[in-house]
Task: structure prediction
Amino acid sequence: MMRIAAYHRYGAPEVVGVEECERPEPGPGEVRVRVHAASVGAADAAGRSGSPWFARLAFGLRRPRNAVLGSDFAGVVDAVGAGVTRFAVGDRVFGATGADGGAHAEAVVVREDGAVVPLPDGVSVEAAVAICDGAMTALPFLRDGGRVGAGSRVLVNGASGAVGAAAVQLAVRLGAEVTAVCGPAHVELVAGLGATRVIDYTHEDPIRHGAPGAPFDVVFDAVGKSTFRRARAVLAPGGRYLTTVPSWAIMAQQLTSRIGRRRAVIMFTGLRSVEAKRPDLEELAALAASGAFAPVIERVVPLDAIAEAHRLVDTGHKAGTVVVTPVPEYQEA
Result:
């Protein structure tokens, strides 16, 4: 048997509770991972609440399709199925299950050829799931959606969240000059991530004509609080507005803005192929191991506090990633 954090209807954080179920066995080409850490992020909160509207397209129209949330995991392989060659029992690994979820549990079964890679020595399981939660979204947005490179001027809105904090660091690493936007409680944290300037949005509107650092080659709204229409005032000719939050407006603007000088871009990074995800996981893990990238963690909580983890995410004011530890690393399964 094993413990899982499960929910059977949409609602407030309290709809998620700890239950027991049979421990899954890996089939051919699969590995079972003892989950030492998993992230609780915005996608999990949306899946739990069934809101906004597009969440139910992924999680189930009337009720949850899968009882266990969580796509980002890190832990140790404790069983392998027939034919497995990439991993062995005892290997430290991390990765993402994608839309299948299931990581908010003491064990999860994944395909060995899925989005799972070795976890380097020196990178904690908590840092690993924070990489999945934030950097695995930020990197393709900046690199592929924004084409950020040396000399790019980048505005990151929501710079203290999991995606935003990763975006600041990765944009700097790509050679950009970064203007970061956050609330007053996180100005010092964000300044330490390498931003050229930090704007407290309670004192100054960063998306206005003549804003510090403007015009920007890229405006990356990591929290979905602005719009392409407003951002055009600070975008350079040929600039790109990136947002992580889908809406009917941004879908239409992504199509129609192609004919203009500035573009709106929405990406669904979690739906990328495993072949695209694995190299990014490996690259980001190597950066973390070398100290060149530092995932930001808001809080680490046990599985029994899963509702509290969801409440933290619901506030919209967390710094970095909320991590849940189904099986603490020092504890045997």
